[in-house]
Amino acid sequence: AQSVTQLDSQVPVFEEAPVELRCNYSSSVSVYLFWYVQYPNQGLQLLLKYLSGSTLVKGINGFEAEFNKSQTSFHLRKPSVHISDTAEYFCAVSDKTSGTYKYIFGTGTRLKVLA
Amino acid sequence: SAVISQKPSRDICQRGTSLTIQCQVDSQVTMMFWYRQQPGQSLTLIATANQGSEATYESGFVIDKFPISRPNLTFSTLTVSNMSPEDSSIYLCSVEEGGRAFFGQGTRLTVV
After folding, report:
1. What is the Cα–Cα distance from B110 to B49, expressed in whole angstroms?
2. Which residues of B touch A30 (CB under 8 A)?
3. Given CB atoms, is A51 within the 8 Å cutoff of chain B?
4. Which of B31, B92, B105 lies nearest to residue A100, judging by beta carbons?
5. Which pairs count as long-range contacts for B6-9, CB under 8 Å and 24+ apart, including other chains?
6. Most A CBs within 10 Å: which of B32, B103, B105, as the mutation test of the A interface?
7. Per the CB < 8 Å rule, is A94 touching B41?
8. For residue range B23-62, what is the model confidence (pLDDT) as tens digits?
């Protein structure tokens, strides 16, 4: 069985500061990894994904994440945040081998960017 | 990229009643997924719906409570039956395309 752990439920950070949102996963098989963002009263939007290849993945809005297989982590980073980055961020995994593309989501990290 | 439309976007329902949520995709997809997002929590997969067959439900979800239809490759419905306040959640439809999931805007359900 797979699981996703987002260690921080809330992360306050000042504008223009760097931020890292942590995600660890557990799986006995190879997985795809994703970060989604949910702005207030909106649906989920894909930030970035790791399917294969380079372990450093760049996404939209200046975000990037690094897949670390040995640590089973997929932390999300941004070097300088904006007020508009305030949102809920979800890490998710999908089993590569099952072919069903079922997603397991973490509990989410609420990023609050302070002026 | 797939575009998903969900209806209704929100509703307030009386306990004991049922609500059917519609999900329309602008392209043909093999599998459609229904998720629930309870207040302050993450998304939980309810079921996977394939066209022409019964939906596959995840642990903790049953067909009597959440019947699903999948009449064609672009449409699905989820019914929340005999609702109670605990069913108050956001319900999201999702499809997979090109190795990533696309989500509808969600249906925000409040049961009173």
Report:
1. 24
2. none
3. yes
4. B31
5. B6/B92, B6/B93, B6/B104, B6/B105, B6/B106, B6/B107, B7/B107, B8/B107, B9/B105, B9/B106, B9/B107, B9/B108
6. B103
7. no
8. 999 999 988 999 999 987 888 999 999 888 889 999 999 9
Would residue B26 be called left, alpha or beta, if left means φ above 0 and alpha means ψ between -120 and 50 degrees? alpha
- A102 and chain B: CB distance < 8 Å anywhere? yes
DSSP 8-state symbol, B1: -
pLDDT tens sequence across B53-110: 889 999 999 999 999 999 999 999 999 999 999 999 999 999 988 777 888 889 999 9
Show which residues on chain B lie within 8 Å of chain A, measured between beta carbons.
Answer: 31, 33, 41-45, 48, 92, 94, 96, 99-106
* C-alpha–C-alpha distance, residues B89 and B19, integer Å: 12
| Nearest-by-Cβ selection for A101 from B42, B101, B105 | B101
**Contact of A89 with A47, CB cutoff 8 Å:** yes
